[in-house]
Please model this.
Amino acid sequence: MQTSYQFPENFMWGVATSAYQIEGAASVGDRKPSVWDTFSSIPGLIEDGSSGAVACDHYHRYKSDIELMAKLGIKHYRFSIAWPRIIPDGRGKVNEQGIDFYKRLVDCLVENGITPHATLFHWDSPQALEDLYGSWRSREMASDFADYATAVVSRLGDRVTNWMTINEISQFTHVGYAANHQPTKAPGTIVTSLKEVWQTCHNALLAHGLGCQAIRAASPGSCSVALVADIGVSVPLTESAADVAAAQKAFHVTWFNGGIIFPAITGAYSPIILEQLGADAPDIHSGDLETINQPLEALGINNYTGHYVRAADNKDGYEFLALPKSYPRLNMPWLNIVPEGMYWGIRNISEVLGRKDLPLLITENGCATQDEVNAKGEVMDIDRIFYLRQHLKAAHRAVNEGYPLKGYFLWSFMDNFEWEQGYTRRFGITYVDYKTQERIPKASFNWYAECIRQNRVV
Model:
């Protein structure tokens, strides 16, 4: 019986962050506003009325932050590049000051023995393009994204070879646009129909496809290209054949899988989704699906929770199960603790999508906990350690059974601006005192360092 939870020798241990959540310096170096700067300025939309204008001031403190990463022992760091820092107007002139910041950042990572993994888009699109044509509501956004990708990769491709196109399409489309109610994420645009929401999603998939082509064309050498998806995970209530089959069928309709990862990975929308949508399905032009379905070196999976499913005697053959009131969760309303979701997310990608050959990375996994600094100046986030330990055990099960999981990026390296929750939720393994910008490694930081050192779950 396997009890050591040892990972393969070449397993990638890392941490992840995103630009708007940590960089700050919102008007430094000719950066112009993103849709999140605008969204955050509207009263009532951010829980504590804050914004990412200063955040963790990583723009000015990246050297000491990277030194702390080196102490953690990671060899891989996933970060994002801010489009409004590189092309402030969204299209047109490239801002070399913005490029220079990322050159310094990447050089510092390499000097510390850390491999950079750059995400080109993590939700902070230029406000200028929202003003010009409604950003993701327009197909123009896809070609502007490809031009932005070309600008970045042609300048940083001598330093960065691991690229991720877009992070979590569902969040800035389905949660950033909505019909008949205020969306909770930027750009926060109310549209008139579900079809328009799905069109923003399709346009983002087009941007991913064109972005893949742009990265490969601009890269001075061989490179790795990935998409990052917040897949919905359907978890069988029991591992009976009936429940497993039910959960795998339900995978098509869990969250937005059938309309995002299915076209990206298989070249076709799930027929189950298209049937459900009917007239609300997006308009798909000739050649779109071929553009969207680009070959990938890896798929990034952001996993935090899961949804229990069992076989049912109904037209679908499955049913999603509501969680009881006493079901455990951490410090977000949706953060139910479902560690098996890690294993089933990996397995479902390989089996339901028929892509056992596609290398997988956990590009985000972590939790918000109610962290406090004690009298000794420590943050004893034992609940986070519990959560992470169980998820890594589930990841190990997937590896042990032969599924192609190659690496794990913990979310997040440090506390940060948590979107519509502002600074009221802490996801980091490093505590940030936002008044002083002091960094305090939490108990989970030291625990994760030991996992990395021993290359296993401890």
User: Anything to note?
Assistant: The chain has one domain: 12-454. The chain has a mean pLDDT of 98.
